[in-house]
Amino acid sequence: MHLEGSLEPSLLLSLAAGNGITLPSPEEDPAFASADALLDRYSRFTSLDDFLHYYFIGMSVLVRAQDFEALASEYFARAHADGVVHAEVSFDPQAHTGRGVKYATVVDGLLILCFLRHLPVGDAAVTFGDAKEDLMSGRLVGIGLDSSERGFPPGAWQLIYAQAKDANIKRTAHAGEEGPVEYIREALEKLDVERIDHGIRLAEDEGLMKEVAQKEIMVTLCPLSNVRLKCVKEVADLPIREFLNGGVPFSINSDDPAYFSGYILDNYCAVQNAFDLTLGEWKSVATAAIVGSWCEESRKGVMLAKLNELVEDYS
Q1: What counts of helices (H) and strands (E) characterise the chain?
Q2: Tens-digit pLDDT profile for residues 239-278
Q3: In angstroms, rounded to a whole number, what is the distance separating the alpha carbons of residues 202 and 192?
Q4: What is the overall mean pLDDT for the chain?
Q5: End-to-end distance of the chain based on CA atoms, in angstroms?
Q6: Are 198 and 215 in contact, with CB atoms under 8 Å apart?
Q7: What is the 3-state secondary structure (H, E, C) of 148-159?
Q8: Which of 177, 178, 186, 194 is an active site residue?
Q9: Least CB-packed of 54, 152, 217, 233 within 10 Å?
């Protein structure tokens, strides 16, 4: 889940007013006439880049440490209401430092640092240098790669990822969302990622899918995001059955929930409505999510025990 992607229109407009941020006028873009108008526009994204246009405008209202605190507080309250007991949240520091917000203002309490692939690799290298101490200390737990995918193959970030591996820093990357299945292979071979974000094109390469299953590399699926961004027509088109049958570990996630009208429970319900999973299949999905998480082993043990209790209660 991208923290900036949980910025609801009501908070966006409130922070813009409080921080003196000028947003597009309703004459320039009718979507900014009201919070409801923004929500309506979010329901009509035509592509990943169409979404990113609004995503980066939204980020512009985040200026002070308390803005990020308010954003996180709203998200975690919503996640708690959905029954979430562990969340691994990513953020995009380059989108903030590039407009003068200090790295230290953004970083507190967040987990996975993502590089923006539409920006120069050199810019990512600077961000990695700024964050390396936090990554080494465990204040941040890993790195990722997000933003526009088409035309930005992941291999360009190979040197940064090699440095991260040498420093024992965990690694993931968006691959095979809008981009081709070859991007997944490239992320595995050149970036040596330990997880694959989105990864819905994986089912197009049976051999690669078997490799991912054998290596137990988790794929972080984001069903409602994939539908909203036209990666698939409907949730039922996602390769969830193929992954289950092929032994590919995967988790269900919300990606940018404020923009896709779907928090974590909404995504779980959408998958259930589309695939009618059994209790055993859901246990497999939840187990993969816990085992593939980047928290400490003791924390995983607690969550696995809780999962087993819940399964026993509903059996």
Answers
A1: 16, 7
A2: 999 999 999 999 999 999 999 989 999 999 999 999 999 9
A3: 16
A4: 94
A5: 30
A6: no
A7: CCCCCCHHHHHH
A8: 177
A9: 233
**Distances in whole angstroms, Cα of residue 95 to Cα of each of 20, 108, 150, 151, 193:** 18, 16, 19, 20, 23
CA distances from 263 to 241, 252, 282 (A): 22, 11, 18
Which amino acid would we find at residue 128? F
Which range, of 34-48, 84-98, 169-183, 294-308, averages the lowest pLDDT? Answer: 84-98
How many degrees, rounded to 5, is the angle at CA 173 between CA 225 and CA 279?
55
Cβ neighbours of residue 67 closer than 8 Å, sequence gap 6 or more: 15, 19, 61
- Answer yes or no: 177 catalytic: yes
DSSP class per residue in 194-225: SEEEE-GGGGG-HHHHHHHHHHT-EEEE-HHH
Angle at which helix 48-59 crosses helix 35-42, to 10 degrees, equals 150
pLDDT bin (cut points 50, 70, 90) of residue 108 is low
How far apart are alpha carbons 160 and 170 in whole angstroms?
Answer: 12
Judge whether residue 287 has pLDDT over 90.
Answer: yes
Residue with tokens 């990622």: 193
* Cα angle: 187, vertex 188, 193; to 5 degrees: 85
